[in-house]
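Training component of the fellowship. As part of building independent skills, the fellow (R.M.) carried out the full modelling exercise for a liganded target. The chosen ligand was fe (iii) ion. The inputs are recorded below so that the supervisory panel can assess the work.
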Amino acid sequence: MSKSSTHGSIMGRWLAPMLATALLPIASSALADEELVVYSSRKEQLIKPLFDAFEKAHGIHVSYQTGKEGPLIERLKQEKTKTPADLLMLVDAGNLWYAGTQGILEQTHSPVLNNQIPAQYRDPDGRWFGLSVRARTIVYSTDRVKPEALSTYADLADPKWKGRLCLRTSKKIYNKSLVASMIHHHGESGAEKIVRGWVDNLAVKPFAKDSHLIKAIEAGACDVGIVNTYYFGRAESSNPDIPVALFWPDQSGNGVHVNISGAGITQHAPHKENAFKLLNWLAGAESQKILGSMNKEYPVRGDIPWDPQVASWGRFVADPMNLAETGKRQAAAVKLMQRARYK
Ligand code: FE
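Fellow's submitted model of the complex:
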């Protein structure tokens, strides 16, 4: 995270926990009459442009602390009523759902948010709201795979893909959420059969990152895999002729597994009204366009045009299940993947 002058008026509130946990001070670059503080697991380059635009529109300065989701959630639990944080921004519904169960997010009632954000992308209890959408879909080698050979996530368990499949590690929450969605649709034993088939078909051991998986397909180490769309977006941006393409599975079934980045107002937010304003603004047209194009994701709202590169990948049917369901099934998904020896 970047560090510049720490906002004077929050210093007192901030100093004690900062010294206690030796974290860096909140990034802050300007003085405004009003303020709020965000804890974010999204990287600085993906949030600062939004906060700058929000300050321009509303004269409310946003200070922020970035870090991994686990420590940020723990921090909020420890700080309790003394937290300087007003809003928690996280990636993946699995993380948002977990934060929602830890007593650190308040129930927010906003007719605007409920209107603009489809129900599947927000907590039924109002503790968190999706702000951008990403699809976790199939990627394939355009040299070695005909798209007609692809159909569903389950089909990647078929022996015809033996020695041809690449996966990211099961430890990444993206795959926990994907498998949780499969438990929702196929039941535990159905999902386990599919995951076992995937493991049988692996060409090489699972990767630490989606970007490594895409490189492996490009290099010929495997022919198909599963990644989040924006990782393909980045690879395609640096090589427009990349011999890899996206495929939308389950189009006549459950649809493509989608997930979100999102946010919720903290239980003990010192600037609750400002946090409410920011959260509503993040679902507004201006920020939705920024959110969609910055990281090659999809706006959470259906009425906002897609980034041209994202649009070039085509429309698809997304899985309509409420993402809170993937949170509830995270633990079962982890156990299932262990049983299937998916590392
Ligand atoms: Fe990611």
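The panel noted the following from the submitted structure. Confidence is low (pLDDT under 50) at residues 1-22. Residues 173-201 form the longest helix (29 residues).
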